[in-house]
Structure formats: structure tokens, C-alpha cells
Design a protein that fits this description.
Blueprint lengths: L3 H6 L1 H11 L2 E5 L5 E5 L2 H8 L4 E2 L17 H4 L9 H10 L4 H22 L2 E5 H6 L1 H11 L9 H9 L8 H22 L5 H11 L17 H32 L1 H9 L4 H11 L10 E2 L3 E3 L2 E3 L5 E3 L1 H5 L33 H18 L2 E4 L5 E2 L8 E3 L1 E5 L6
């Protein structure tokens, strides 16, 4: 079943149909190879936590969909690993993304949001993806990792080339990979010669010293990172920390513009923003699909047997719109009980940066709504990226205006 075009243009109507008629179906993946698509909430949630569904590409049979093709120096990351390697590496970096650490970042995140809005001025029109939703997470994650400011400019171009390849530029994705590999190679060398007070310098110290993970415990052998693992981890943090959050912020703004009553409600009572972010993530999350998985044995999902090694794609977007779990799922309801939504995953592969992504989205919305009492869509109409890997806008034109002077 070839659903790529439909899933990009009208994903929710397609998922509605599939949940009713073919909750586990054979489709053509983004690279033209076959995969199994799972769409019902209960099945997706169970599969996300099923240890028989491996992320390790070596488990895949030949000819199936494997996802992004990356060199070993960027591919040895958490999205391709099962325990115990996954557990070891995730533990090394998890302290950088705790709720406590996120709280410490709220003030600099707000300062960045305010600076970006200052650049927009008191009134006008702008593309809020290019001017706000994209640069905010880039600044935050690059500050966290310690990426110099003069090395941040090309990153969005590289990620776009991987997530939504341009058919007219067939070599763009490979060129982006080469550029990123060179970027991270240079960055590692820079951090080794001039370490700073940042996450990447800390990870390099763990790699080169082979010692503690920062809490004074553990043994050196268990905490070692290979050079490929170190570079791949830096790539994943920067790539995912940017990519997921720009979609989350942009989609949230777009959704609120389509629901002006809810936007006005949040403007009047910003205390509702944390809960609103959860509903906005459920309603239009950043990742349509979880990272592909490969059964280690023949497994049965919703009565369908999927052979070992074939590719399984779990639709987070469909699960979050399943009426069996969320009544009237196509309705944006800021009072909804969103507990259990899967926009940021579930199980041991739950999004490591979820607390940070939530905080960035909440702060981005708060700053935007405080600054501009007038905020409304402008022409041209926003366009979705032509991708099954990411659900996000290529641009979001708006008209904005600060409070009018009474003098």
C-alpha cells in the first residue's frame, strides 16, 4: 500500500481509515522499501515497550526500510541501540535533561525568546518558523552543547536535507551528512583542545578519561564511550534537540492560530500553558512515526503476524488521535486529560529531551502571547514539510502587533 502522498497531505483522515480497516498494514516506506504500519493506540503503546522490537539495524532483513543512512561515526547513537549499550549511554547523558536542569535553563530560554521577538519589532508580518520557532531551539541546544555561534548557521539546512529531501537535489542528503561529519569532527577537536563548561566537554572527558559519569560512582569500564559513540551522541543531541522542538513550537503556534478562542484563553490565563502544551503535542505532535523497529522473532500485533527482521513503523500521530483512548480526538481541548499521550514516545526510548522540549514550547508561547496582543495568520497559507519523518511547517506567515498606544 503506497500511502506516502496521502499521509503527508491528509495524515489524520488516512489514519482514521486505517485504524478502522487495517490497524496493521503493509506499506511502502519513505525510501520505497516495505514496512508494517501500526496505528491503534493500545497496539502502538504496547509495541513501544516491547523488548522484542529492536532498534538495532543488524536485526533487519535485507530489502526493508532502515531509516536514515549515516556513516558509523554518526550512526552509533541511541536510536539504533538496545540495552545494555542503550542503557549505558543514556545514563551518561540523562543528567543534562532532568526536570531540575531544565528549570535552571528557563531564564536563559526566556531571554533568547525575548531577544528573537525584539528583532521582529512592534508590528509587521513575519515567518514565525524562520524567525522564532527554528532559531530558539538551535540557540538552546547549541548553548547546552557548547557549539560556537559561528558554527550554527548551516545546521537547519542540513537537517532539512535529511528530514525532507528535495527530489530536485538527489545528492543534498549525502552532502549534508558529509558536512555534518566534518562539523562534528572539527567540533570534537576544538573541545579537546579548549574544553568549556558544557555538556560536550563533559562527555569528552568521560570518553578520554574513561572515568566517572559525573556522580562519583560507577566503574570506568562500564562508562566508556567509543569515539563513534561520542560523536554519534553529540549528533543525536543536536539533531533531535533542534528537530523535534522546532516542530513542537511551530505546530503549537499554528494550531492556536486555527483556534483563536483557545489562543485568547491562554493569553488571558497563561497558567494553563503547561497543560496546553501537552494537548497541543497530542493534537499535532512533531514526529508522526516512532523510530523504525525490527522484530527479533515473529510477533503478532492486532492479529497480524509480522516476521522477524521486517520493519515496523509505529504511528504516534495515529495513536494520539485514536478515539478509543482520547474521546473526540480531532477536537483541541485544553482541559483534556492528556495523560498517556505518545507524542514524545514511551518506554525506555522515551524522548530524552522531553522536559527541555516542553519548557521551550511553553516559554516560546508565553513570550509570544505576552508580546503581541494581535497575532493572526498572514499570506501565503502555511505549508507542511513533505516528510513522513517529521510533522512540521516549512513556514508560518503571521501578522503581529504590540499593544496600541493610548496616547
Amino acid at each position: 500500500m503506497d500511502l506516502q502522498g496521502e499521509l503527508i497531505e491528509h495524515p489524520h483522515s488516512v489514519y482514521d481509515r486505517l485504524r478502522d480497516t487495517a490497524p496493521v498494514c503493509r506499506i511502502t516506506g519513505t525510501d520505497g522499501t516495505p514496512a508494517w504500519l501500526v496505528t491503534r493506540y493500545d497496539d502502538v503503546r504496547a509495541a513501544l515497550a516491547d523488548p522484542r522490537l529492536s532498534l538495532d539495524k543488524s536485526r533487519a532483513t535485507e530489502g526493508g526500510y532502515r531509516g536514515l543512512s549515516l556513516p558509523p561515526a554518526l550512526d552509533a547513537n541511541l536510536l539504533n541501540m538496545d540495552p545494555p549499550d542503550h542503557t549505558r549511554i543514556r545514563r551518561l547523558v540523562s543528567r543534562a535533561f532532568t526536570p531540575r536542569r531544565t528549570e535552571q535553563l528557563r531564564t536563559p530560554i526566556r531571554a533568547t525568546a525575548d531577544r528573537l521577538l525584539d528583532a521582529l519589532g512592534p508590528a509587521g508580518t513575519a515567518d514565525l518558523v524562520a524567525a522564532y520557532a527554528a532559531p530558539l531551539p538551535i540557540v538552546v541546544i547549541c548553548d547546552l552543547l557548547g557549539v560556537p555561534e559561528d558554527r550554527r548557521l548551516d545546521f537547519r539546512t542540513w537537517t532539512d536535507a535529511l528530514i525532507a529531501p528535495d527530489p530536485s537535489r538527489p545528492r543534498a542528503a549525502k552532502e549534508a551528512v558529509v558536512a555534518m561529519l566534518g562539523f562534528f569532527t572539527e567540533l570534537m577537536a576544538h573541545k579537546r583542545s579548549r574544553p568549556g563548561d558544557d555538556l560536550l566537554s563533559d562527555l569528552i572527558a568521560v570518553r578520554d578519561g574513561g572515568g566517572s559519569d559525573g556522580d562519583g560512582g560507577g566503574d570506568s569500564g562500564g562508562d566508556r564511550l567509543s569515539e563513534d559513540e561520542l560523536m554519534s551522541l553529540a549528533f543525536l543531541i543536536l539533531f533531535a534537540g533542534y528537530e523535534n522542538t522546532v516542530q513542537l513550537i511551530g505546530n503549537a503556534i499554528h494550531t492556536l492560530l486555527e483556534h483563536p478562542e483557545e489562543l485568547a484563553r491562554l493569553r488571558k490565563d497563561p497558567s494553563g500553558l503547561p497543560a496546553a502544551v501537552e494537548e497541543l503535542a497530542r493534537y499535532e505532535g512533531p514526529a508522526p512515526l516512532a523510530i523504525r523497529r525490527f522484530p527479533t522473532e515473529d510477533i503478532t500485533i492486532a492479529g497480524v503476524t509480522v516476521p522477524a527482521g521486517e520493519t515496523v513503523l509505529l504511528s504516534l500521530s495515529s495513536a494520539n488521535r485514536d478515539p478509543a483512548r482520547f474521546p473526540r480526538p480531532g477536537l483541541l481541548d485544553l482541559d483534556r486529560d492528556t495523560s498517556g499521550h505518545l507524542a514524545l514516545g514511551h518506554g525506555i526510548h522515551y524522548c530524552l529531551g522531553a522536559p527541555l522540549a516542553r519548557a521551550e514550547t511553553e516559554i516560546a508561547l508565553a513570550a509570544l502571547l505576552e508580546r503581541y496582543p494581535v497575532l493572526e495568520p498572514a499570506s501565503p497559507a502555511p505549508r507542511w514539510r513533505p516528510s513522513l519523518r517529521a510533522r512540521g511547517l516549512t513556514e508560518l506567515p503571521v501578522r503581529y502587533e504590540t499593544a496600541r498606544s493610548t496616547h
